[in-house]
């Protein structure tokens, strides 16, 4: 009988009490993060999460990293291929060729690695500043905006290292494209 009472107390304490308290603390201290880090447009409509990458195929937008799971957040993950894996080599070479078609005059060595490889989760919403700057000429051609305007836009969206030491500088593709869309609409 003692064990049943102990089990009931533990279920109530850790199965109900702890989650309710932690949810309350998260909502009070970090409401944006606790609710999924959702990004809203000017019309207050949710357009995505700043933590999950999206597929952009239109040439007038910046593109993110390749996703082997097709940006399906329910199936986070990626094949764990070695750099010598034939399928991995073929996929990265194909991706590099596609980028070179969109960016004539560039060489395979100039294509940033994060544009032809995927992240561990397959959902990375960020690209390197080099990957964003690499896309500027093709986005300028597709939108009619100047390369200078787009370079300034990319610079504005570079996020630094966390606490100044963790990670690498990065650009959130969704946030970048949302501001780019405003620039395109303002031009029309």
UniProtKB/TrEMBL annotation:
Q: Which GO terms describe its molecular function?
A: ATP binding; hydrolase activity; P-type potassium transmembrane transporter activity
The record's InterPro entries line, in alphabetical order, gives: KdpC
Location (main, coarse): membrane
Q: Where in the cell is it found?
A: Cell membrane
Q: Which Pfam families match?
A: KdpC (PF02669)
Coiled-coil positions are: none
HAMAP family to which the protein is assigned, alphabetical: KdpC
Q: How does it assemble?
A: The system is composed of three essential subunits: KdpA, KdpB and KdpC.
Record family assignment = Belongs to the KdpC family.
Q: What is this protein called?
A: Potassium-transporting ATPase KdpC subunit
Q: Please name the source species.
A: Parageobacillus toebii
